[in-house]
Amino acid sequence: MIMHNRMKKHNLKFVSVLISFVVWVYVLNSEKAQFEKVVAIDYILPEEKVFSLNPPQEVTFTIKGIRAFSRSVLEKKDRIVVDLNRLDPDSGGDLRVELNPTLLKLPYGMKTEKINPREIVVKLDKKERKRIPLKLQFSGELPENLILTNPKVMPPELEVSGPHSLLSKLTEIPLSPVELSSLLGRNETGVSLFLPDERITYLGESGLKLNYQIKSHVSNFTLEDHPIRFMSHQKNIHSEVKTVRVSLFLPDKVTKNRLNVSSSVEVWAEIPQKAQGKVVVPLRVILPPTMHLLEISPKTIIVNVE
Fold it and tell me: Hey, is 206 helix, strand or coil?
């Protein structure tokens, strides 16, 4: 009997705790909350149309409902799709798109109190393609006694796409500035495009190149009898000329260490793969960025390939 009474008391305590927990969960879930959620907008454009002015890219929903559901609503990756083909894109003037609160799907017990903006004004323009010249830009300075000559960007122009109202006024596209001090030791470098407006897209392949020459009337360093390296798939090659004279222009801090200069300058004779007999081979000089080639003598050599 005593044991039975004890079990009855424990059961009552358990039921009381369970009821308290259920009431707590009910109260928690019944608590109301109001919050804002920002949702991205995806536009479907009519064929051969582009934005004349970029419309809003997101909309803010003010949502009210059970607090327990607010986190899941906020974490869900929602997007709104606006199909402009459903309007009359050829009517001219502005297109007005009304955003309905029901565009955002919410769980039971949640509802949209407000949406901002409620209406979006879209301005469309005819899509146009046009070839536009590229404009070189430079920054910094070259060392004294050096000058940049014949800078040419390849290709010199690009085909772009964008709104007619914008492209009709665009006469050139600027490139990102090229740092002059980075041009030493080479005659070609990559350059990047700087599109003046995000509504413009360029068509075709990437990989713009700047070809140029750097000249100087003064040589402050000369390598005499500098060895030529031969690159060939054939085993039997012979050349009477095995060294060259290389005239350089170097910054003062580089000229102090002659050994480092000699070891960092490479002169290559690249033998064509199927060459036979006597072949005239141009010499190619590879330099670190801090050095600049003024002259190599001779510029070509005769190689006998057996």
Answer: coil
For residue 19, the SS3 value is helix
Model pTM? Answer: 0.53
User: Rounded distance, CA 281 to CA 238, Å?
Assistant: 12
Closest Cα to residue 158, out of 140, 141, 174, 179?
Answer: 174
Which one-letter DSSP state was computed for residue 175? B
Other Cβ atoms closer than 10 A to 5: 9
| CA gap 235, 275 in Å, rounded | 12
Q: Are 171 and 216 in contact (CB under 8 A)?
A: no
Q: What is the pLDDT of residue 21?
A: 57
Task: Judge whether 207 and 168 are in contact, CB under 8 Å.
Answer: no
CA dihedral in degrees (166, 172, 176, 178; nearest 10)?
-170
Asked if 180 contacts 140 with a C-beta cutoff of 8 angstroms, the reply is: yes
Domains defined for the chain, CATH in brackets: 30-125 (2.170.120.30), 127-215 (2.170.120.40), 221-305 (2.170.120.30)
Q: Give per-residue pLDDT as tens, 213-222.
A: 877 767 778 8
Do residues 134 and 158 touch, judged by C-beta distance below 8 A?
Answer: yes
Q: How far apart are CA 226 and CA 14, in angstroms?
A: 95
The total number of residues written for the chain in this structure: 306
pLDDT tens-digit series, residues 279-295: 898 999 988 877 778 88
Q: Edge-to-edge strands of the sheet including 292-297?
A: 221-227, 243-249, 292-297
Q: Which amino acid is at 27?
A: V
Within a 10 A sphere around the Cβ of 7, how many other Cβ atoms?
Answer: 10
CA 158 from centre of chain: 17
